[in-house]
Description:
The structure is a homodimer. By secondary structure, chain A is mainly α.
Amino acid sequence: IALVPKLAPDDYVGFTFFVGCMAMMAASAFFFLSMNSFDRKWKTSILVSGLITFIAAVHYWYMRDYWATNMESPTFFRYVDWILTVPLMCVEFYLILKVAGAKKSLMWKLILLSVVMLVTGYFGEGVDPANAQIWGLISGIAYFAIVYEIWLGGAAKLAKSAGGSVQSAHKILCWFVLVGWAIYPIGYMAGTPGWYEGIFGGLSMDVFYNIADAINKIGFGLVIYNLAVQQTSEA
Amino acid sequence: IALVPKLAPDDYVGFTFFVGCMAMMAASAFFFLSMNSFDRKWKTSILVSGLITFIAAVHYWYMRDYWATNMESPTFFRYVDWILTVPLMCVEFYLILKVAGAKKSLMWKLILLSVVMLVTGYFGEGVDPANAQIWGLISGIAYFAIVYEIWLGGAAKLAKSAGGSVQSAHKILCWFVLVGWAIYPIGYMAGTPGWYEGIFGGLSMDVFYNIADAINKIGFGLVIYNLAVQQTSEA
Ligand SMILES: CC1=C(/C=C/C(C)=C/C=C/C(C)=C/C=O)C(C)(C)CCC1
Ligand SMILES: CC1=C(/C=C/C(C)=C/C=C/C(C)=C/C=O)C(C)(C)CCC1
């Protein structure tokens, strides 16, 4: 029999870790079990969505237990998770736009930018919090470069030329990156020292990160699922 | 080797936790393994039924162990479970009525109401039990709004226009919500202080919740399974 920890009823961080973990598991089951209903092209995208939530489920399992044991932010596992899932999300952008002739170089560009964003974020949060502002700034610039690339750069042009449901799915994903991903820097500011200290009224960094992860990982996957449904019934 | 706890033979809460856990696991296997016998439209509904029992199986696993270790109501895990499974049941209502032209706004309305119902219930049970009556009242109002919506509101009209086996499945699900879900507020009253104290003769809150969960999660799924069987042989 496993020891199940007692969590305080108002431990919202713990609550969101548990809900997040289970939601990621359920989402993975959903993507993995439904992928075979689609054409091969879309199968891969759905599979990658499932991998993203599956990787997250495993890390949420650790983070949940880490939190329950140490009552401390599991920064280490958080970034292990992101360094795998964010590049996979860049792969998703590429897979969607492949029908419109996207090149691998677009994918590598996005992956590179996301790695810069995350490595500098990790330095600010985990290694050198005294300079969290500077690391956060560099990370933020990489983030804006991603936003630029997908909204106005090469990716946007490809989506336009694809038209139809590919274009509209791309647009929704662009909004995820602009609005959903913007929750992360807010969490970062709530959890690191800097000029911005205190604006977020003591709400814990992990609550922001957990909510953002649920929105971005599962929501992102569902947009792709929807696109696959549309494209399969259109055909 | 895992430690297997000794449970008292008259520990009915423990008994129902163990039975519930296994029933949920078996139901998940049933739904997941049978989903591929149906058309895609019904596949998704069966898959969601399986996700509901799967999520419950995982949480019953915890709650069982939590109960065996602490002999205390696992409120925290109970609500983590509900906050995921009840919205998924709202999704089921939507999926069934999609053939009759249901809009996503119906789904979001039901989800919103169910979240209000559960969040206020959690406050009454876990965070602020001194005011359990008031929280329970607000939660009950949201519950009635759901009942109204599916019995007499937009969802009812759609079911009527769909007719046939969709309409009759919808009707059965409506009964589940009216009668099966009504067991939960009884459990709540058995477990929180208020004017209603003592009427339920000391029967434990968790016995009510466990029985209700088995009926609602598995029964609900089986109704949808039946509908899928009918619709597939009709076609
Ligand atoms: C801009 C910025 C950040 C951005 C993080 C982002 C955008 C993370 C996205 C994670 C996702 C999408 C995970 C889902 O799988 C950091 C690193 C917090 C540091 C502060 C500045
Ligand atoms: C009305 C009411 C409640 C209703 C709970 C319900 C209706 C829960 C349903 C759960 C289901 C259907 C789970 C199955 O997956 C609470 C929160 C106990 C608080 C008291 C008032």
